[in-house]
Amino acid sequence: MPRTRQTIAVAGVGDLGKYICEELLTSSDFSVIVLSRVVHASLLAACQKSHTCKRLIPSEWIGDSETYPLKPDYYASTRDPFRKILRAQDEVEWTLFNPGWLADYFLPRGKTYISPIPDKFPVDPNGWRACIRGSGEEMQSWTCGREIGRAVVELCRAEEWVSGNLTSAADTIPLWHIENVTYVAGEWSTFNTAVKVMESHYGTFQLYYLNIVTGWLLPITHKPVEDIQFSLEMHTNNGDDDFEALELAQVEEMMIMGYMACPKEKTMRQQQKYFADLKSSDLEQLLTYADGVDFV
Ligand SMILES: NC(=O)c1ccc[n+]([C@@H]2O[C@H](COP(=O)([O-])OP(=O)(O)OC[C@H]3O[C@@H](n4cnc5c(N)ncnc54)[C@H](OP(=O)(O)O)[C@@H]3O)[C@@H](O)[C@H]2O)c1
């Protein structure tokens, strides 16, 4: 039986949103409308008033948000209040979607929609340097933006939502089963391993990175855990005097504590449940793919 074409509204389309929109547009199952900046509460209120728009994927895009819901610290104000609002209602079904780090930060500028953040992310593929926070051995997970976009499309197709659009015969008891937190991961790895993959990959294949002093090794600096903790405490205790420094310390804390690693067992289970047809690339596969295309 042919499916009805569904309309997906994407609100606040920035770098990552471009991948989600492009992947939705490649599917004949969906029409897309792009909404400009709206706040979560307005979006939920609109869904509650609507008779047909009853599913919501709010902005979450982090790591293990079930074990560490208030990390980074700024999620306590930017995400947690809305999660509470979602949990307190049952008119709109929802899932918080988490991909770990965006693997696109390992890609050269111009190959991805994701803007580089060389002072925050440990590996800078454009400046060809790395700043390892902590030991570099803490477990992380990452997924590239394109595959996140594809996963969001699969999630929109999931039977749990589709059947969830119906209510019981009495029209009162919802038959909704989507899980309230969904994870994807291209791979689990560490920043030390990522550096080795970058060196090995570009050293072999991309000679334009060759530096006469260092050869193809990534020049590495280190930031000890104590420095990050000191910065975190200092900027937290000083209030919002230097929001950028505070945000950086909070993001660095995510690295050294491994908070960005999506929980493996649940992620793998959900991969089978929602994303079984999707390819998920590890870093080496992503770099190799990026070499062969103008844009990922
Ligand atoms: N896991 C990771 O490694 C990772 C990395 C980067 C980002 N993220 C997360 O992914 C999401 C998207 O990131 P992005 O890089 O695509 O961001 P982006 O390019 O800065 O785009 C963000 C979008 O959200 C809108 N927006 C910003 N502040 C808003 C507010 N207070 N109220 C309503 N709308 C607002 C912006 O609207 P305007 O265009 O009007 O400013 C823009 O359309 C964010 O939640 C971010 O925290 C995760």
UniProtKB/TrEMBL annotation:
Transmembrane segments: none annotated. GO terms for molecular function: oxidoreductase activity. Signal peptide: none annotated. Keywords: NADP, Oxidoreductase. It comes from the Eukaryota. InterPro entries: NAD(P)-bd_dom_sf (IPR036291), NmrA/Isoflavone_reductase-like (IPR051609). PANTHER family: NMRA-LIKE DOMAIN-CONTAINING PROTEIN, NMRA-LIKE FAMILY PROTEIN. Belongs to the NmrA-type oxidoreductase family. Isoflavone reductase subfamily. This is NmrA-like domain-containing protein.
